[in-house]
Each structure stands twice: as structure tokens, then as C-alpha cells.
Amino acid sequence: MTKPIHLPNAETLLEVCEATWPPVSTTRLGAWTIREGGGGGKRVSAATEDWPVTDADLPTAEAAMRDLGQVPLFQIRADEEKLDALLDAHGYSVIDPVNLWAAPVSLLTTRDLPQNSVEAIWPPQAYLSEIWQEGGIGTERQAVMARAKVAKTSIVARLGGHAAGVAFVGLHEDVAMVHALHVAENHRRRGAARMLMQAAANWAADQGAEVISLIVTQGNHAANPLYASLGMNMIGHYHYRILPDQAQK
Fold it and tell me: 217: phi > 0 → left, psi -120 to 50 → alpha, else beta; which?
């Protein structure tokens, strides 16, 4: 009998994200965890609360992030309604609500992908970096991949002999997480993203992973339906808060 796979909760998936898409550094400061992102995006730059905070705690986090050259940015997770309300009262707006997805690796694994259509490569070759660059996944975000101290790989999908898309996959304990999945614009709607997810699951299975997961903004109206169509489960949500005049910086 096949052993049932219990999907991780949102808290565990955020731990997997921290391990597979790590900040430059983390600092515990009072009630906060402060992350130095190095330009690697919101996931590695947002502060989180370690225990319930008050208005008196907010300036500490704001000053710490500004000292790092970052705009104050906070991640609001499940059951953090009081922090959410506190930041709202101080003028912080919601930005980039996020969905957390997961599925048993076995749901996506397949050995029926066309020959030479996918490949796991580490370190990424220059042409993969160029595809990421075209998708706005620049040097700073690619540096996040390089510093992740986990089993990891990049995955390339090919259509008609040409590199069509790329993704990064990292493994923490028995959960693999896919990041930075990007399909070149001239290759979209031809199945490359699905191939990338299946190839990522194949790699994860070979590493002994039981679960494959990812995190994607709710506003990504191409990605979310794809993950639902693959049979993945939406595990939870989180969002960020930022001051409105800082949101475009």
C-alpha cells in the first residue's frame, strides 16, 4: 500500500522558502526578524514579527530596514491580524498578496516528457541566466539561488530545440520548492511551464522529496490556474504591507 503523503502547512512552506530562497542575513531585533535582501525581492527583504508587537515596536523595525538601505516592508502571515491592523493604522498598504501551493511529488512526476525537452543543470549556464534576465529575474535574484545552501538545480525546458523556459528548484528536508519559473514570451502557451513543473518534480523525486511546492502572487493570472490544473493544493496565503510612497521604489 502506498504511504499517504501529508502536505505541509503554510508555516512549514514558509520555512522551506526561507531555506531555498534565503536572505543575505537575518537579525533578531526585539520582537522582529529583520532580513537583509541584497536586492533579491520581497521574500528576502520583509520583516516578520516573532511575537505580538505594539506601536512602540514599529520604529525599531523601520529604522533597521532603512539602515540596510531597504524600504520598510512587512510580511503578514496567517493569524497576524493584529500586526496587519497596526500597520494599516500607520498608513501601510497591502501589496502582493501571495498563494502557497503544494502537491505530492508523485502527482507531477512523469517519464513521458519528450527526449531532450528538459534538463536539470547546476550551475546555470549563461543562456539560462539570460532568460531569467529577460523575465526581470536579474543579478540580485540569481544571487539568491547561488547562496542557497540546499540541494538545488535549475531546470530548462526546450521547444523545437530552443530554450523556452527556466526554473530554480531547491530542497529542504523532504519538500522541494520551485522559484523563478519563467517562460520566454515567444514560447508561451505551448506547454513549457507544465514541462518545467513536471521536470522539477522528477528531479525532486530523484532527491527523495515527497512534496513539491511554490509561492506565487495572487495577481499572476497565468500561473495560478496552471498550478490548479496540475492538481496542486492551495495551502494558504500571506501578504506584504508597505508605505504607499515606497511601493514603486
Answer: beta
Q: What single-letter DSSP state applies at residue 150? A: S
- Which residues lie below 8 Å from residue 121, measured CB to CB, with a gap of 6+? 128, 153, 154, 155, 156
**Other residues' Cβ atoms within 10 Å of the Cβ of residue 206:** 12
**Whose CA is closest to 21, among 127, 176, 130, 160?**
176
Work out the number of other CB atoms within 10 angstroms of the CB of residue 91: 10
Q: How many CB atoms lie within 10 A of CB 9?
A: 13
The model scores a pTM over 0.90: yes
For residue range 69-119, what is the model confidence (pLDDT) as tens digits?
A: 999 999 999 999 999 999 999 999 999 999 999 999 999 999 899 999 999
pLDDT of amino acid 247: 73
- Helix pair 126-134, 139-147: axis angle to 10 deg: 130
Q: Is 3 exposed, middle or buried (0-12, 13-18, 19+ CB in 10 A)?
A: exposed
- State yes or no: pLDDT of 249 exceeds 60: no
User: Would you say 183 and 167 are in contact if contact means Cβ atoms under 8 Å apart?
Assistant: no
Buried b (16+ CB within 10 A) or exposed e, 32-56: bbbbbbbebbbbbbbbbbeeebeee
- Find where cell 530545440 sits: 161
Cα–Cα distance measured from residue 166 to residue 221, given in angstroms and rounded to the nearest whole number? 19
List % helix, strand, coil for the chain (3-state, nearest 5): 35, 30, 35
Whether the pLDDT of residue 29 is over 70: the answer is: yes
